[in-house]
Amino acid sequence: MILVNTDYISGKELEMLGLVKGSTIQTKNIGRDITQSFKTIVGGELKSYTDMMNKARALATKRMVEEAEGLGADAVVNVRYASAAVMQGAAEVMAYGTAVKFR
């Protein structure tokens, strides 16, 4: 499966199949949340949250690809990511794009 953030793939004629998306909501456990809050005192990267968001993006992408494969797509163009806080310590990550088939 080819994933691009452009609306075309060089050398390919595309037939649009439709919007596909994948999402997940992730949270850290309370113990990690407390230890990460101490980091705000001294500053620096919140590595546990960085890891959480990387895993969430990967899972959202996987789910988007599965939806595209279900439509018989060869690629997803215009891939975008969005995230939003759902509650304190929890975030939703969504991956979305347009499923296409090569002509």
- Sum up the overall morphology in one term: elongated
Distance between the termini: 15 Å
Helix-strand sequence:
EEHHEE
List unreliable stretches of 5+ residues.
Answer: none
Taking all residues together, what is the mean pLDDT? Answer: 88
Approximate helicity band = 25-40%
Helices and strands in order:
Blueprint: E1 2-3, E2 14-27, H1 30-42, H2 47-70, E3 75-87, E4 90-102
Parallel strand pairs: 1-3
Antiparallel strand pairs: 2-4, 3-4
Word description of this protein:
By secondary structure, the protein is an alpha+beta fold. Helix content is 36%, strand content 41%. The protein has a four-stranded mixed sheet. A hairpin with a 2-residue loop joins strand 3 and strand 4 (90-102).
How would you sum up this structure in a few lines?
This protein has 103 residues and is an alpha+beta fold.
Give a quick set of tags describing it.
103 residues, alpha+beta, four-stranded mixed beta sheet
